[in-house]
Amino acid sequence: MRIARANRLTPYMFMAPAAIIMAIALLYPLGYMVWGSFRAWNPSQSIGEAEFVGLRNYIFLWNDPNFHESLIVTLKFAFFVVSLEMLIGVGLALLLDRNIRGMSVLRTLFILPMMIAPVVVGLMWRYMYHPTVGTFNTTLESWGLPKVDWLGDHALMSIIIADIWQWTPFIFILSLAALQSLPRSALEAAKIDGATGWQQIIHIKLPLMMPVLIVTCLLRLIDAFKVLEVILVMTAGGPGLSTEILALRISRTATEFRELGVAAAMSNYLLILLLFFTVAMFLFTKWQEARARRLAAAIQEDD
Amino acid sequence: MAAKQERQNPSFYALIAVLVFMSVGPVLLMFVNSFKLDVDIISGSTGLLFLPTIQNYETALCDVLWYEIDHLDFCAIKFGGAFINSLIIALVSTVLTLIIGCMAAYALVRFRFMGRDTVSLTTLMVRMVPPAVLLVPVFGLWNNEFCLDKDGLIGGFIRETMGGRGDVCLAGTHSGIILIYVAMNLPFVIWILQSFIVQVPRSLEEAARVDGAGPFQVFFKVVLPLIKPGLAAAAIFTFRIAWNEYLLASALSDRDTKTVPILIVNNMSEFNVEWGVIMATGMLLAIPPIIFTLFASRQIITGMTAGAVKG
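The joint structure predicted for all components is written out below.
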């Protein structure tokens, strides 16, 4: 009897520390933020002293051109970063999926950029983009080409390039792992049937990799909204608002403009956006799985 | 294009060489520049035609060096202290996250209990929360609310694990930063470890239970040793995030608990950047992750693929 009850309590005992920590340091703060977003709140007040203003922060942001600008920059950044990284990463994985010696060494070198601190990545790229002493401009100059104002006129492109440098390996490694775990039989069969390299890729490899690719894409998309330090160090959001992604704007609203209520409302908008993407991706995978199951069933009926 | 298996033509190796150069190049560039004087960096003497100097590292580490430095009158960058703070915060939060995370992952995989689905869905959902979103509430809570609770449940727990620091709020202490890092990393660690625990054969656990081991004994003596690779992967990822994080640390730390990323950003934002010194600090910050990468790349890749393929 006593043992039975102990057994029933066991999972809760295993869960308890994690549940407590996440409740007080993640869920409670998130609730606190929602509560704070309805208030005119500055950092010197405690939340109880802040005046309740209803939806004013949300309406203010809804009509704020700077917020719109920042939102557009964020979406552009996320779109270009994720699509280019998927394209390059998967492409390289398809190209390099061969039995060559030293592949593990190569993979080690490729994951180096992701392990280094974003602050340091930003630092390296800021140096390389530097208008006079930077690597790119000195190289261009020595080739007799005109200099490029990397972090000025082309700031958004430059931060996208830096992010591609850092995170393409992530997609590359995951797609390579997916490729190497594909059933050999399907590929052999295709080869015997005389499928060309391209046909194999489009009709067999890519469809079979699809589940992994979707998860990878989702992970990158979520992470693209988290990027902050690299941009902070490289451009600090400038020039103007051209690289001020939402995460950066939230932190500036909170620390520079000292408007915690507005920053909280902005965080909520960002969360809603992320939630939308996550749910959309989730539904898409469910739909795909259902379709795959239907197809499999249809094939079995044919037999 | 990719179909030919045996013969690799030269352009294939050229492509690999270019890729390696592109991924390692910037790091090497920083490494080389950290041994140059600012004069050499600005004059743009490319290549290796310069006299290497450790002066930048001396400037960066001036507060922990045992000898006097000639070229420096005043020690402005207190890198040593920040390095120790970073080390404490990253190590403690990694250990805590792993212990708490693998227990939770085990419960989620092995037991069916009320609220299991809610817990696992919540874990998945909070993974997408960006640190910037946590900035406002964490700043408010850690400064205003989590001080009074010191003798209650929360403060008691933190004192137990961290050792108390007297009458202070959570903000500005190591524990404050550690708490948010543990919370932030838990969902990720639980997610990764689940996929490793699933692979532990049930029969082993049942055999241990038949021999009279309790659930905690089964967990620590049977399951934990079997998921060592998963633990290594999770540890590296957690350490990396805690070691590299800037935003929340900058909101929560005070003068004495600054971490290295904060130090670097503070020195960068000045108009006139001292490239040599800043690259030396950047290099010092990057060394631990680079070492991990070189020695444990297999675990890192296993962890990455396990996390993504599981879905």
